[in-house]
Structure prediction request, 337 residues.
Amino acid sequence: MEIVRNISLKPYNTFGIDVTAEFFLEVTNEQMLPAITGDSSLPLQRCVLGGGSNILLTKPVTGLLLHNRLRGVEVIREDENHVWVKVCSGEVWHDFVMFAISKGWSGIENLALIPGTVGASPMQNIGAYGVEVKDTIESVSFWHWEENRFITYSNTDCDFGYRDSIFKHELKDKVFITAVVYRLNKTPNFNTSYGAISQELEKMGVTDITIRAIADAVIAIRSSKLPDPKEIGNSGSFFKNPTISNALFDALKEQYPDIPSYPVSDSMVKVPAGWLIEQCGWKGKREGDAGVHAKQALVLVNYGAATGAEIWNLSGEVLTSVKNKFGIDLEREVQIW
Ligand code: EPU
Prediction:
């Protein structure tokens, strides 16, 4: 196994933060995982890096950093209506979405252009434009470092929630996700409920909706609002959209009649964090090379040489001002290393 020492992680995280990893290893096949567990010369502390699109690196990574390079896509089952596709976790998510579209398989077209790897999709239950990936996941397979074996969890075992799963809690740092099985539809079930999608389709002059047209609309919306990590470092939404009680929402609505919201249950509503942050005056603000994106206040950006600590500090200031103005505690969505 080829361990690289003290490598810069700048090309491996979409925030473009320049810190080093002490021990770096590319995992190119599943059988390396039992071998790593059994090799006592390797550091016991391990972490897994996929596309590096949902992390903020605030300090050098000590221990063994495993870069997921497991590749492969395979149809494992098919019936009249569905296809079950097993995808290795190191595949690029967007490439898989485009592959599914080329085959006419529907279910994930609304999730086009989300950065990162297939392995991250169950981890944070990626979602966009009215769709969450959990609705297509059949099972998730992983290597368990302590149990020393490969395990497969069904959808319900994964405890999926909004940008959440068991892999962020009980199984955090305990497993290496190796593959995900998605169940996709042969007959499309279009999801155009999210306002921006129907508007974009209309703008594009689409009358005959297809899964490709939906993906094109999603790509157009995302490209217009979200910064391209190749141009400006970022990790997508930095915060989660908070869920608040109806009582707090009603009080806020009196003071801020324009406050947007989405019902979550009879007693709770979700409020867009981007709106709250914008109201606090942060949109487009910059402190050195750390900033709040000018087109979407939910996204923090690195204009070049920001450190992870500088982005972290900025996120803390944003949290404090939202708390002071609205009494709402925002939660960071991005994983902090
Ligand atoms: N808004 C503002 N100001 C802003 C940003 C948003 O007022 O600076 C308002 C918009 O006017 C709109 C509402 O907030 O009324 C929602 O905005 P948007 O449709 O852009 O979605 P979001 O809630 O900000 C979430 C996801 C995104 C996902 C979009 C579309 C989270 C944390 N973020 O953002 O996911 O693409 O919906 O479905 O749930 C990601 O997770 O990295 C991500 C980009």
User: Anything to note?
Assistant: The chain has three domains: 4-68, 73-185, 233-336. The chain has a mean pLDDT of 96. The longest strand covers residues 175-185. Helices lie at 32-38, 93-103, 120-123, 195-203, 211-225, 246-255, 273-279, 308-326.
